[in-house]
């Protein structure tokens, strides 16, 4: 996945020059406009919002092994309401 940024001044594509991890779920992106006539520079924040499906890494090896044999529809029922 690549992140695309857009200049809010001229609408052209921006370039992420660097970034810094501010917190576990927040990253600051230092950006510049690729339009030489504009030259705008700015900072955007990339923030984790929420989980759609839990990571398999959240479970023990034993539980992961057992879940591999459960059909996806049944897995959804098992985890309904946990999010």
What secondary-structure arrangement, pairings included, does this model have?
Layout: E1 5-6, E2 13-23, E3 26-33, E4 41-47, H1 61-67, H2 72-79
Question: Can you walk through the features of this model?
Answer:
This protein is α+β, with helices and mostly antiparallel strands and 83 residues long. The protein folds into two domains: 1-49, N-terminal domain of TfIIb; 51-83, no CATH class. It is 18% helix and 34% strand. The chain contains two helices and four strands. A four-stranded antiparallel β-sheet has the order 1-2-3-4, with no helix packed on it. It is elongated and about 60 Å long.
Calculate the terminal CA-CA distance, rounded to whole Å.
24 Å
Helices and strands, in order, run as: EEEEHH
| Helical content (DSSP H or I, runs of 4+) | 10-25%
In order across it, which strands form the biggest sheet?
Answer: 1-2-3-4
Provide the residue-averaged pLDDT: 90
Pairing-aware structural class of the strands and helices? alpha+beta
Main beta-sheet annotation:
4 strands, antiparallel
SS element count, helices:
2
| Second-tier CATH architecture of the largest domain | Single Sheet
Shape: elongated
Query: What is the number of E strands?
Result: 4
Strand content: 25-35%
Unreliably modeled segments: none
CATH topology of the largest domain: N-terminal domain of TfIIb
Number of domains: 2
């Amino acid at each position: 996945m690549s992140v695309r940024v857009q200049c809010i001044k001229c609408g052209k594509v921006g370039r992420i020059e660097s970034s810094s991890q501010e917190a576990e779920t927040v990253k600051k992106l230092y950006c510049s406009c690729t339009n030489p006539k504009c030259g705008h520079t700015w900072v955007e924040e990339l923030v984790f919002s929420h989980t759609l499906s839990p990571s398999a890494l959240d479970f023990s090896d034993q539980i992961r092994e057992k879940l591999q044999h459960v059909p996806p529809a049944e897995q959804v029922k098992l985890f309904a309401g946990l999010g």
